[in-house]
Design a protein that fits this description.
single chain, alpha/beta, Alpha/beta knot, seven-stranded parallel β-sheet, 6 helices, globular
Length: about 170
């Protein structure tokens, strides 16, 4: 490895954000997961969590959409929600799910100066009732259009870049 490459790796590692993570629950499309991975790497998130309680564990992710980001991240995969949340709670006292509800707070009202885990759900069903019950609350990305949902990779990108700005 060249000295320049070593320097770049050390610089990137020193800027990783330990206080922010992403959890993807039952996300079907490996390309969506890979796109989220790429964005997490870009923002400096080191650890991501993949929770598959209803679908089989992903064997590989979309190489084109991730640009091989998976090799630079620590990917925690779980098949049991309780075990996943126990691991999350050790590092992230605040866990919020993306869910359109009357009690959901705006993404822009979240204090990202504290450790936070953001949970994104399945492309069609969203975050499950089980996970919402285990979380500390819900958040939404304010939108002005008719359609009140975004693709998971887009929603994740908007959310973690909002956190990055704090």
């Amino acid at each position: 490895m060249t000295p320049e490459r070593t320097e770049k790796l050390l610089r990137v590692l020193n800027r990783r954000q330990a206080n922010l993570t992403v959890v993807m629950e039952n996300v079907q499309d490996p390309h969506n997961i890979s796109a989220v991975m790429r964005t997490c790497d870009a923002v400096g998130i080191q650890d991501i969590y993949i929770l598959n309680t209803k679908i089989p564990r992903h064997k590989k992710f979309g190489a084109k959409s991730s640009s091989s980001a998976a090799k630079w991240l620590t990917v925690h995969q779980y098949e049991d929600a309780v075990t996943c949340f126990q691991a999350l709670r050790e590092r992230f006292p605040l866990i919020l799910t993306t869910h359109l509800s009357s009690d959901a707070r705006s993404l822009y009202e979240i204090d990202f100066t504290q450790p936070v885990a953001l949970v994104f759900g399945n492309e069609h069903a969203g975050v499950s009732d089980e996970i919402r019950a285990m979380a500390d609350g819900n958040f939404i990305i304010p939108q002005m259009g008719i359609i009140q949902s975004l693709n998971i990779s887009v929603a994740c990108a908007v959310s973690i870049y909002a956190a990055y700005r704090q």
